[in-house]
Automatic annotation (TrEMBL):
GO molecular function: 4-deoxy-L-threo-5-hexosulose-uronate ketol-isomerase activity; zinc ion binding
The protein's role, per its UniProt record: Catalyzes the isomerization of 5-dehydro-4-deoxy-D-glucuronate to 3-deoxy-D-glycero-2,5-hexodiulosonate.
Family of this protein: Belongs to the KduI family.
Swiss-Prot/TrEMBL GO biological process terms: D-galacturonate catabolic process; D-glucuronate catabolic process; pectin catabolic process
Catalytic activity annotation: 5-dehydro-4-deoxy-D-glucuronate = 3-deoxy-D-glycero-2,5-hexodiulosonate
Identification of the protein by name: 4-deoxy-L-threo-5-hexosulose-uronate ketol-isomerase
């Protein structure tokens, strides 16, 4: 089964008086990976589509045409994929490849067939996908976790020691506007980034995972001088508009996938926020 939910864009003034319930309704995706299903969210923030594909006994394929005004899903889009579950397979235009945990794939505009399978239905693959509009066809590239040298950053003193694995990134492969990566916090660290930043030129979506049942992440959002937060559990996702900070702190260490799109693909294009400016 495939289900796609639409979320609309909001100005900073819109959320000023939101209750916790309303904030969660607009920005939090509580169910991303459902065995045997495809669960997608279509955000009008730069028209990103993201979500989870969790095959069990049968292959799954994202089928979107009339919803996007095209003949097939990737007719005018590019796609990033990272597997965070059990071993699986991805078939692209008839070519089948293994996808172990943490393997990724960049799939370019115009690709007609993308099928997802699990090797073992009792330990299904969990393919996190992110798709954005594209204007040019770049080559499909498998991105093995074994070939990525992580960026090690942060420090124990500030509780944000972490490894950043860049998947869809100019250092790895070409893309139109999609960037995508995987961050793992070291034991004893809890902040995914602080001091925080915004990037008015790009929106972002996060999915948090590798969390125990009683672990929570407090995802910070909003304008720097008027912050709000979402309390998030394992394998839940959130939308981060371009005007919003996107920083989180957990009750234990965790992992997350970030995906961005917008005006450029310059990873370091950030507007840093001074600690004294946070409210």
């Amino acid at each position: 089964m495939q289900k796609m939910e639409t979320r609309y864009a909001h100005a900073p003034e819109d959320i000023r008086h939101y209750s916790t319930e309303q904030l969660r309704k607009e920005f939090l995706v509580e169910e991303v990976f459902v065995p045997g299903d495809i669960r997608l969210t279509y955000t009008h923030n730069d028209r990103m589509i993201f979500g989870g594909v969790t095959p069990t006994t049968e292959p799954l394929e994202i089928v979107l045409s009339t919803e996007l005004g095209v003949d097939f899903f990737l007719e005018r889009r590019e796609l990033g994929v990272i597997n965070i579950g059990g071993p699986g397979f991805i078939t692209i235009n008839g070519q089948k490849e293994e996808m172990k945990k943490q393997d990724g794939y960049y799939i370019g505009m115009g690709t007609k067939e993308v099928k997802f399978e699990s090797q073992d239905a009792s330990n299904p693959a969990k393919f996190y996908v992110s798709s954005v509009p594209a204007h040019h066809t770049y080559p499909n590239v498998k991105i093995s976790i074994d070939q990525i040298k992580p960026l090690e950053t942060g420090e124990k003193l500030t509780l944000n020691e972490r490894k950043i694995y860049q998947y869809v990134h100019p250092n790895v492969c070409q893309s139109c506007q999609l960037q995508m990566g995987y961050t793992i916090l070291e034991p004893g660290s809890s902040w995914n980034t602080m001091p925080c930043h915004t990037h008015e030129r790009r929106m972002e979506a996060y999915v948090y995972f590798d969390m125990e049942a009683d672990t929570k992440v407090f995802h910070m959002m909003g304008k720097p001088d008027e912050t709000k937060h979402l309390v998030m559990g394992n394998e839940q996702a959130t939308i981060s508009p371009s005007w919003s900070i996107h920083s989180g702190v957990g009750t234990s260490n965790y992992s997350f996938i970030w995906a961005m799109c917008g005006e450029n693909i310059t990873y370091t294009d950030m507007d840093m926020v001074a600690m004294d400016d946070l409210r």
